[in-house]
Amino acid sequence: MIDLFFKGGFLMYPIALCSVIGLTILINKAVQYRLLLKEIESQPDEIAKTKPQIMAPILKALQDGCDERELSIVGTRQVREIEKGLSWLGLIATIAPLLGLTGTVTGMIKAFMVIAESSSVNPSMLAGGIWEALITTAAGLLVAIPIHIGHHYLEKQADEIAFVMKEITTSLYMRCKGGV
What family does this belong to (predicted)? Predict the structure, then answer.
């Protein structure tokens, strides 16, 4: 396996780095979202008593008597905090296949340079360049596909958290205003 890594050439290093960073962000965000959903799955009254950290600024704004517009700004700020780091996953899912494609190009250039420099070419002379081309393409895709799937899953989780927070905030706001 390590032999394949080295046959892929220098572009395997940034692809491996993308893999490590992407996996770290993916696991970190998955754990964070799981804990957040668990914290805010209670009824609004319970949330007002327990004051989970993610809801604290919104609850404080409600206590201070903020209007809907101000609550919206505070809520948007909290959602942005939740979504922090997701854009890196999107970037990694985009860059990894491009690095693989670049490896394809450099590998094919090496293969064609061998053809140009030699009067008679046998297939083993081209193998190094073709190896590099195929391995970097496969590595880029193997990193990008799971990161892309994880990115979409986490976006759905972040949307769910934002929706639950909005429901709780609306319920508490209506109670403060005496509507419900």
Answer: Belongs to the exbB/tolQ family.
